[in-house]
Amino acid sequence: MGVRGGCTLLALGAALTACAWLLGSAAADGEPGAAGMRRRRRLHQEDGISFEYHRYPELREALVSVWLQCPSVSRIYTVGRSFEGRELLVIELSDNPGEHEPGEPEFKYIGNMHGNEAVGRELLIFLAQYLCNEYQKGNETVINLIHNTRIHIMPSLNPDGFEKAASQPGELKDWFVGRSNAQGIDLNRNFPDLDRIVYVNEREGGPNNHLLKNMKKIVDQNTKLAPETKAVIHWIMDIPFVLSANLHGGDLVANYPYDETRSGSAHEYSPCPDDATFQSLARGYSSFNPAMSDPNRPPCRKNDDDSSFVDGTTNGGAWYSVPGGMQDFNYLSSNCFEITVELSCDKFPPEETLKSYWEDNKNSLMNYLEQIHRGVKGFVRDLQGKPIANATISVEGIDHDITTAKDGDYWRLLVPGNYRLTASAPGYLAITKKVAVPYSPAVGVDFELESLSERKEEEKEELMEWWKMMSETLNF
Amino acid sequence: MGLLQMGTMIQVLALVLSQIHAFPKPEGIQDKSLHNRELSVERPLKEQIAEAETDQILKIAPPENKAGERNYSSDNLNLLKAIGEKEKKEKERKSLQNSPHNKKLIMEEVDSTKNRRLVDDYDSTKSGLENKSQDDPDGLHQLDGTPLTAEDIVQKIATRIYEENDRGVFDKIVSKLLNLGLITESQANTLEDEVAEVLQKLISKEARNNEEEPDYPSSRTENYAENLPEKTTIKPAIQGGLTNGESDDTVHKTWTIPNTLERRNKLYTEDNFDDLQYFPNFYALLKSIDSEKEAKEKETLITIMKTLIDFVKMMVKYGTISPEEGVSYLENLDATIALQTKNKLDKNAADNKNRFIPDKSHEEADSTKEEAAKMEKEYGTQKDSTKDGSNTEKNEEPKGKTEAYLEAIRKNIEWLKKHDKQGNKEDYDLSKMKDFINQQADIYVEKGILDEQEAETIKRIYSSL
């Protein structure tokens, strides 16, 4: 009986297996039609990355797709709206999206600040998709990056400008159309000019970091600031960014601070206190881009002066003076180190070239991300273990201090060498430690600061002890 | 060509085997003995119900142990012990509510059930152990004697997992099937889903049942009555596989023919062919599958055939059918193979292309493709997308966007499954993910990141999974 039944079962099984295969083959017929319809939109698709220009709706769709594919490590948010009301979208990739984990450094990429410099915008969309894909494939480098960093990607800071630029007919796009925002403001000249203040302070004494306290109030009251600029400033104030890059087009170089010349002349090498660090960071991008780091590369245009370019990098002021730029604003108002990367001689190249731009820049983008895990990092706490926010970390020999974030955590990017780091905070006794810094990874150094009142108490106790001892001795 | 023939073979087998009901049904004998049993003794209604339930559990218990396999006899013993205990507990509970004097009787029932053979014709000198194993094939029939459907198999697997409280059962089954190449990864995943679903139902049902006086037999048959046709495509693959997997072990143990023990390890032993020489057509078919690549297919075919032969041999041995009937059946099988092979080969040219993408298409046929087809219909005709913002772009966009979202969601689910499997977690993360996505989608709509329509689409896709 049972055997009998078993036979029936087998029969059923085999029969239905056959049905399954038939079904499968039938379903296969549905494929070609659908593929044809998708043809136009997925011109050069590879692993979910479509190498074509994304207008605002497509940009949004692309980011949403990344989020849908990797919802456990990604989150979309907006830092504000452009003048014409488009969301300034950011996609965040991290193992705990939406949260700052104490000790986890924050990174940002911003593209398309000039609306007609389009390559950066596209590269960042590709990057987001790439990181998600690789994460799911088990790529260890990517997994480690995402688990140990909070990566923020803003493909376009000037979506209005891009729409204007992209709407131009024909392949050749004008050098200027779409560059500024909808109000005609050049966003990369719109930031408060902190360079000038710093230069004054250098002469007459004064701080050179975290200038402009009460930043938010000043920003909100300033009528000259574009909504996009304001949004970014708030963003910088809210999140303790450590490293950043600002993607542009029109040339092929990695540019670092200061952008504005000290003397006010048109070209002058204007180093910042972290010049050595910045050179290393900039090379961290350019050296992985074959075209950018090619020493024999001819300049983008015949009469271009690229004499300041070294290894695909340049000091901002040495190249040409830029006041009110976002890069220097980062360095002088916050802890964030930002460089400006020019990705293409052509600001808005033909769509077919996008794939090759991705190939050229993929490794640079990844390697630059990893630069965040360099130098020294750690926590500043009091003797009870409570974090001390806004404590100062100064490095002997480098006239630029950084501060600790809300959880007492800090990240000090440094090139390899021996340093003395000092942690200090109002009401606390400063502590200095010696650190030997390799190329990478970052060295962990924590500080436990004793508050002044605690020290006073200690001293009082010591004094009492001594007095007791003395009086006992004398009275004996 | 081998793959083709294999497919042909399977289909042929399928067709052939589905005509088995031409064969004399021995169920009548079984029912008769059951019947007789019940009439011979007057027992309280509750006991009879309990007994029926126990029988059912025995049948359910090892759904994959068909064809009287012996290898898992110790497993069965433990299982039955566990069942017996469970039975005991339930009965104790029940009896506490009822009159105490029934308790003793009920306990006896449990014990005596273990020894009772459902087919009295079985050799009474055999130990209770083996008889239990022989009982197992009965698990293929429901109480009312109708053959099980694919849905039932899932039910049984789920029940077994539940009762053993070990999902290793499922993993064992699935890995066997995968090794035999009878199911693909995605089919395995789908099966897992379905089993999980049923398991969940079981658990909640049990919880409910524990609170009230249940009517066990009827609630069980209730589940069996559900036959969802769309699921049949996957599970019977399991059935076939289960049978094959277990019968290998069967052959291993039951037959005292020399070389039996080596049979399992050798891929192409002469023994296989010895047995099969009585089936010239099948033999010819096997011979024609020569290449390295098709080694696995060949092995599967051989296993299938051997299983059939073993079934028949056992039926003959235990007198379920007469030897002549067995022989004639097998001869019929061979003849039908010849005929069907010939017919199928004529049609193969057209099917050739489609054969090679069954798995992928099938997987898509599951939920995402249905969903895509639904979406496509909703959004109207398709046109090439242009970048100048004309109205035609609008029609194309929603569809392209939906597809993109679908694709992304699918990748996420796949990754989730793979990720969870490695972490040995249950796949209930899917519902957590669903909730999370729904929540996030709403937040995104508020923030202006998604528009309402998109959020609806995404929620709908997730709810269809």
Automatic annotation (TrEMBL), chain A:
Its EC number is 3.4.17.10. The keyword Membrane applies. Keywords: Carboxypeptidase, Cytoplasmic vesicle, Glycoprotein, Hydrolase, Membrane, Metal-binding, Metalloprotease, Protease, Secreted, Signal, Zinc. It catalyses: Release of C-terminal arginine or lysine residues from polypeptides. It is an enzyme of class 3 (hydrolase). Residues 1-28 form the signal peptide. InterPro entries: CarboxyPept-like_regulatory (IPR008969), CARBOXYPEPT_ZN_1 (IPR057246), CARBOXYPEPT_ZN_2 (IPR057247), M14_CPE_CPD (IPR034232), Peptidase_M14 (IPR000834), Peptidase_M14_domain (IPR050753). One of its GO terms (cellular component) is Golgi apparatus. The active site is at 342 (proton donor/acceptor). GO terms for molecular function: cell adhesion molecule binding; metallocarboxypeptidase activity; neurexin family protein binding; zinc ion binding. Residues 52-372 form the Peptidase M14 domain. Its main location: membrane. It is a peripheral membrane protein. It is found in: Cytoplasmic vesicle, Secretory vesicle membrane; Secreted. One of its GO terms (biological process) is cardiac left ventricle morphogenesis. Its cofactor is Zn(2+). Sorting receptor that directs prohormones to the regulated secretory pathway. Also acts as a prohormone processing enzyme in neuro/endocrine cells, removing dibasic residues from the C-terminal end of peptide hormone precursors after initial endoprotease cleavage. Belongs to the peptidase M14 family. PANTHER family: CARBOXYPEPTIDASE E (PTHR11532:SF92), PROTEASE M14 CARBOXYPEPTIDASE (PTHR11532). Interacts with Secretogranin III/SCG3. This is Carboxypeptidase E. It comes from Phascolarctos cinereus (Koala).
TrEMBL record, chain B:
Residues 85-145, 350-401 are annotated as: Disordered. It is found in: Cytoplasmic vesicle, Secretory vesicle membrane; Secreted. GO terms for cellular component: extracellular region; secretory granule membrane; transport vesicle membrane. Residues 85-95, 105-124, 132-141 have a biased composition (Basic and acidic residues). The keyword Membrane applies. InterPro entries: SCG3. Keywords: Cleavage on pair of basic residues, Cytoplasmic vesicle, Membrane, Secreted, Signal. It holds the Pfam family SGIII. GO terms for biological process: protein localization to secretory granule. It is a peripheral membrane protein. Residues 1-22 form the signal peptide. PANTHER family: SECRETOGRANIN III (PTHR17388), SECRETOGRANIN-3 (PTHR17388:SF2). This is Secretogranin-3. It comes from Phascolarctos cinereus. The lineage of its organism: Eukaryota, Metazoa, Chordata, Craniata, Vertebrata.
